[in-house]
Amino acid sequence: MNSILAEVLYALCALLLASASIFLLVREGRSPVVRWFVASCLALLVWVVTLFLFGRSEDPGYVLLVGRANFAAVSLAVYFGFRFVKAVAALPTHASDTWLLWFSVALAVISAGTPWIDKAELVGTGITGGHETIYGPLFGFYVFHVTGMLVATLWLAFRSSIRVASPHRDRLLLLGWGTLATGVISLVTNALLPYTFNDFRWIDVGPLSTLLFLLAVAYAVIRHQLFDIRVFIRRAVVLGVALSLVLACYSALVLLVTDKFASSESGGVTRFGVLVLAFSFDPIRRFLEGRIDKLLFHEHRSSPERSSANL
């Protein structure tokens, strides 16, 4: 892959993963769907960043450290993706989920801290002079774990999409196809080709395929209200407009008071104006929320009424 194009795509992947994580965590950090999606994004972010650094260093010790961190991130990402899809399907948590979590964490620790999965990294010995990984005795088991979690995620997404009603069906189908595209490409370019054919030329394609997963999630957000983007937009617009109004009113009040009244009296009048603005903030916020809901989401609000009328 062209180095400039690869670096641009790496930067785009990292930016999207980081910005999505920060935005959703700040807005709806208590939602299980958001928490597992953010965890998936952060693990994928580590995978993308470490693989970018992996191919751009000539220090064997540093490359080995980064390569092991890369393996560890993938072990966690596949589990977090599984829990994300399960949360979207609104399925209950079982004891096996906790065991799988600890197993994935343990495998990540083994990946990062021992030679059992990533035994060594050779610099400049690949087919095209790139890096080459010497795999440890547990690498086959590691690939089995990653593949198994991806298969479980796909099975959960497509199976649940048959049993639930729309729009959850459409969300799950999109997540299933996005996971399938990213998972298959990554397994081929980052596991099958390097391990079987010693071909490391395509390892950049794996992490960049996360764009397909993010694209599926973005379409589910926009088209099928995943994460309830309506709430995000309303909060951002309402609070932004309300805060701007309050600041504008306060600034105007301060200018008016300092211009019309003596300095000995302006302090009390200013404090009175601040109290008025503070108590009026919540009514302004509620008014703006109603207007924005009506303006931006009129169709969404009226669709249940239309569907009930059709019944």
Tell me about this structure.
The chain is mostly helical and 311 residues long. It folds into two domains: 3-227, Rhopdopsin 7-helix transmembrane proteins (Up-down Bundle), CATH 1.20.1070.10; 231-310, no CATH class. Helix content is 80%, strand content 3%. It contains eleven helices and two strands. The chain has helices spanning 3-28, 32-54, 60-88, 95-113, 139-163, 168-197, 205-208, 210-224, 229-260, 263-296, 298-310; strands at 118-122, 132-135. It has a two-stranded antiparallel sheet with strand order 1-2. α3 runs antiparallel to α4 (95-113). It is globular. The model is unreliable at 301-311 (pLDDT under 50).
CATH superfamily of the largest domain: Rhodopsin 7-helix transmembrane proteins
Question: Biggest sheet, strands in spatial order?
Answer: 1-2
As an assembly, this protein is single chain
Quantity of strands, as a count: 2
Question: Termini distance?
Answer: 56 Å
Which structural class do the helices and strands define?
mainly alpha
Q: What is the mean pLDDT?
A: 79
Shape: globular
User: Low-confidence parts lasting 5 or more residues at pLDDT below 50?
Assistant: 301-311
Give the % helix.
Answer: over 70%
How many individual domains?
2
Task: Describe the main β-sheet briefly.
Answer: 2 strands, antiparallel
- Reported CATH architecture of the largest domain: Up-down Bundle
Topology order in helix (H) and strand (E) letters = HHHHEEHHHHHHH
**CATH level 1 class label of the largest domain:** Mainly Alpha
Strand fraction = under 5%
CATH topology of the largest domain: Rhopdopsin 7-helix transmembrane proteins
